[in-house]
Design brief:
Elements (H helix, E strand, L loop, with lengths): L4 H14 L5 H7 L2 H6 L8 H11 L7 E5 L5 H8 L4 E6 L13 E5 L12 E7 L8 H11 E10 L21
Parallel strand pairs: 1-2, 1-4, 2-3, 4-5
């Protein structure tokens, strides 16, 4: 028996709830592969894949241009190619930026998030997963995200534990002067 379209919409809504700040165990239950199979959907293989899907779902037209900030060796870039992006640019400061994934629709920029060397209004989606806790000047990076995102585009940034911990994993003491 195939579930109705309305049940699929309910399930997708549950997945969106799973991305909200509930406990980790509650989010894990909502992302359990058995729920995906029950509704005839393919479960993501990782949290990276889960968040690339969620980010891509916010773009109403087909994904045209995507910037993946903190792409490291290219894993997230591959996910956006699989989701139909016409052009994916990966950005990172590491020496092996993009080493593990090459594709005709993907290019890599070895640069800081605080100074992105592209024109204004370039991307439909700027995606950053677990990167901002590594960036020294977060405000400058977000200004750059806004600058390179097209009007009506989406900035999808998930940073942990910087926003979940007063001390942050990589930025100990960053919030010391705040209550």
């Amino acid at each position: 028996m195939t579930p109705s379209v309305s049940l699929r919409k309910v399930f997708r809504g549950l997945l969106t709830l799973g991305a909200t700040p509930f406990s980790a165990s509650a989010r894990a239950r909502l992302r359990h592969p058995r729920l995906y199979r029950m509704f005839g959907l393919t479960a993501p293989h990782s949290l990276h894949e889960y968040h690339t899907r969620i980010a891509a779902s916010h773009i109403r037209q087909p994904l045209a241009r995507v910037l993946v900030v903190g792409c490291n060796t290219g894993r997230e870039c591959a996910a956006f190619v699989d989701l139909g992006a016409l052009q994916v640019d990966g950005l990172d400061i590491v020496e092996n930026t993009g080493r593990d994934f090459t594709h005709a629709r993907v290019s890599y920029l070895r640069s800081s998030a605080e100074r992105i060397a592209v024109r204004d209004n370039t991307y439909d989606l700027v995606y950053s997963y677990a990167t901002m806790e590594h960036v020294p000047d977060i405000e400058a990076a977000f200004r750059e995200f806004v600058r390179v995102t097209q009007p009506g585009g989406i900035i999808y940034s998930l940073a942990a534990p910087l926003w979940n911990s007063r001390f942050g994993r990589h930025k100990g003491g960053i919030f010391a002067s705040f209550p």
